[in-house]
Design brief:
The structure holds two protein chains of two kinds.
Chain A (H helix, E strand, L loop, with lengths): L10 H17 L9 E4 H12 L3 H14 L5 E11 L4 E12 L16 H4 L33 H6 L8 H11 L24 E3 L5 E3 L4 H22 L5 E4 L2 E4 L8 H15 L3 E2 H7 L10 H12 L4 E2 L7 E3 L1 H6 L8 H12 L11 H7 L1 E5 L2 H6 L1 E3 L2 H4 L12 E8 L4 E8 L8 E3 L2 H7 L5 E6 L5 E6 L1 E13 L6 E11 L9 H4 L16 H12 L1 E2 L8 E4 H11 L4 H10 L3 E5 L4 E4 L2 H8 L14
Helix pairs in contact in A: 1-3, 2-3, 18-19, 18-21
Chain B lengths: L12 H11 L3 E2 H21 L1
Helix pairs in contact in B: 1-2
Classes of the chains: A alpha+beta, B mainly alpha.
């Protein structure tokens, strides 16, 4: 679109100026609307001299007059031009005038407006307003970290692709070191088992974990450096092989076709022997000798033993440990350490925190130190004493046997008490996934020999499945100690005389003086104790010192006292309790130096429990 | 699979089975792992020469 221009000057000058402008517009008809239209004055004069049929000088005067009269539209600029001079027979430089205009009138140079740009606005305002409330900007709430389940990757992909992987820090280091010599692509995804493919070096292979191995080295050197990783990788290969050509049990392997099978009659006899004749888990060698009548001195005894263990995996429960292959039936295993007072699911809820990073059992004594001594000392809590269980902490696991086979859920371990010349079979539940492990079946031992708060020592023996349990004897005394009275329909806490003849942690001893107030608190059934926040609220109300107002009641107590009372109700570690307190919105540190905590508990407790707490009723259930 | 690639868990398994067959007794997995490394080394050297 063009604007209709108005030219100045005499009628002749206006007409000529309009023609000049039209001429320049024709010249730049394919230009953009804001492009300058330029022409030398000498060219315009030559053109109009011919068109107006006048002399060059006359045309020059008329054109110059028309341009001068319309300086708002035409810009005149003196310039030097180089032209070919026929008279001089060469190129000469002479003065000229450059006429510039625009398609809509005077030419206006293009101007980029940078006063408001996106780049500039990213830094605005220059002086931002202060933020009074940081919680608007950041949150102090820790997001729940989802636990990522391992992803099974088909063997097809593991073997079919050709990308090397990075599976661990160690693997990365290996790859980095190696890449200094020869570049290796290391761009596979973390956590995904990738193919074990030979690198560019002819003597190198990669394990599924991503570890690179130099085959040029001697076998002993390779095994010394990467033995565990190689064995683990080979075990994975054997177990994932769909054709199952290699039989594996524990650390033993054999050709599957060479492993003898057992008849249904053999299996029936073995089951009867374990359940009816022995009544306890039985070692594989006993089954071979007493049921299958295999001579211990037979040349193929070890071969038969391997076959028995490998073939029974799908029919019986393996509850053994390294060096003692024990077998039980499902029915028999349920009886070992059986306790009708709690279910396995309830117990799992009390020990899950051990697998969530709140196991502080090795804070004082490291795993290495425990293993070096082959013994560990434990303070028995009321909960452990009452229900005959022990959480499988890192400290205990350091001296207890490990699982022999993959996905082994349980083992039966013998705990002998040399001071009383008896032993007991304990059902040891290994941690599975997020679920923590525990040992059950101590109820009788703990009740008969020990008291809550007792300091007990576990020690390895010469037998792989036998652990000794001892305690330091002390001068006998009698105390009113806490126990759970199950004589009536509803269980309740009560105090009774108990003889103490072992060393105890006095803080953990549940005397009437120390924890008498527990009778003010609702007796929580086992299934109700999983919610640690509810327990915290009730314990604060029952034991804490009132420091708030009637409208806003606040209760104060020390962390250690809270821990001691909490260990009456459930299995707990200090680190998990501290974590729970920090997470609880109604709890805060009152005095860091003395370990005091405040809890605004009243409303919460009434809301959660329907008002099951009566702080001022001291005499309830005494009769 | 590229003929010049050696894959842990795929290459040399048949030879490993033969080793177990010859042993005729159950063997520790560490012993088996050592034999497998030796099989892979032999394979790698053979390919390198080719």
């Amino acid at each position: 679109m063009t604007n209709l221009l108005t030219f100045a000057g005499s009628p002749g000058e206006r007409a000529l100026a309009e023609q000049i402008h039209e001429l320049l517009r024709q010249q730049g008809r394919f230009f953009s609307s804001d492009a300058p239209l330029r022409q030398h004055l000498s060219n315009l004069v030559t053109y109009f001299a011919k068109r107006l049929n006048v002399s060059v000088d006359a045309a020059a005067k008329q054109v110059s007059a028309a341009l001068q009269a319309n300086q708002a539209i035409f810009v005149l600029e003196g310039v030097k031009v180089i032209v070919e001079d026929s008279e001089a027979e060469g190129i000469v430089e002479r003065d000229d005038t450059l006429v510039t205009t625009g398609i809509n009138g005077a030419y206006v140079p293009f101007h980029v407006d940078v006063s408001h740009s996106l780049a500039a606005r990213l830094y605005e305002p220059e002086h931002p307003l202060p933020i009074d409330d940081m919680s608007v900007v950041i949150t102090t709430t820790r997001p729940i970290m989802p636990k990522i389940d391992p992803v099974y990757v088909s063997d097809y992909w593991l073997n079919g692709s050709s990308e090397p992987s990075e599976g661990s820090d160690e693997a990365l280091d290996e790859v980095e070191q190696f890449s200094e010599q020869e570049p290796i692509a290391a761009n596979a995804q973390l956590g995904v088992k990738s193919p074990s493919v030979r690198s560019s070096d002819a003597q190198r292979i990669n394990l599924p974990q991503g570890i690179s191995i130099d085959l040029a080295q001697p076998t002993d050197t390779i095994m010394a450096q990467h033995g565990d990783a190689i064995i683990s990788a080979l075990r994975g290969v054997i177990e994932k092989d769909s054709t199952k050509r290699i039989a594996i049990f524990g650390n033993q392997t054999a050709l599957e076709s060479d492993v003898r099978s057992f008849s249904k009659n053999d299996l029936r006899q073995i089951t009867e022997y374990i359940e009816n004749e022995m009544g306890v888990p039985v070692e594989d060698t006993d089954i071979l000798v007493n049921v299958l009548r295999v001579n211990r001195r037979a040349a193929d005894f070890e071969k038969q033993r391997f076959a028995l263990n490998f073939r029974m995996l799908k029919d019986l429960e393996f509850v053994g440990v390294a060096g003692a292959n024990l077998w039980a039936t499902r029915k028999l295993l349920d009886k070992v350490g059986a306790n009708k007072r709690f279910k396995a699911a309830d117990m799992a809820g009390f020990v899950n925190h051990l697998e969530e990073g709140f196991d502080d059992s090795t804070n004082v004594t490291s795993v290495e130190a425990i293993q070096a001594k082959s013994s560990v000392t434990h303070t028995l809590s009321f909960f452990e004493w009452e229900y005959g269980i022990l959480p499988l902490t890192d400290a205990l696991a350091a001296i207890l046997p490990s699982p022999v086979i993959n996905r082994q859920n349980a083992a039966v371990v013998e705990f002998e008490v040399p001071q009383h010349s008896f032993s007991v079979s304990i059902n040891m539940r290994f941690p599975v996934g997020n679920r923590g492990g525990w040992l059950q079946g101590f109820e009788e031992v703990f009740r008969d020999v020990l008291v809550p708060g007792a300091l007990i020592t576990f020690k390895r023996t010469s037998k792989p499945n036998v652990i000794s349990l001892t305690y330091a004897e002390a001068e006998e005394r009698t105390e009113q100690l806490l126990f759970i009275d199950d004589s009536k329909k509803k269980s309740k806490f009560a105090f009774g005389e108990l003889h103490i003849n072992c060393e105890v942690d006095e803080d953990m001893l549940p005397t009437q003086l120390a924890v008498g107030r527990i009778r003010r608190i609702k007796f929580f059934e086992i299934a109700e104790r999983k919610n640690i926040n509810t327990l915290i609220d009730h314990i604060f109300m029952g034991f804490g010192e009132e420091v708030g107002t009637k409208l806003e009641p606040v209760y104060r107590m020390s962390f250690e006292q809270l821990f001691n009372v909490m260990s009456i109700y459930r299995s707990i570690t200090r680190s998990y309790l501290m974590h729970a307190l920090h997470e609880a919105e109604n709890c805060r540190v009152a005095n860091n130096a003395s370990g005091l905590w405040d809890c605004r508990a009243d409303e919460v407790v009434n809301e959660r429990s329907g008002g099951g707490f009566d702080r001022h009723d001291d005499d309830d259930d005494d009769e | 699979m590229d003929g010049k690639q050696i894959s842990f868990g795929t290459t040399g398994i048949e030879e490993l089975l033969e080793v177990l067959r010859e042993a005729s007794e159950p063997q520790d997995i560490a012993w088996l792992a050592e034999r497998y490394i030796e099989i892979l080394r032999t394979k790698a050297q053979t390919e390198e020469q080719e």
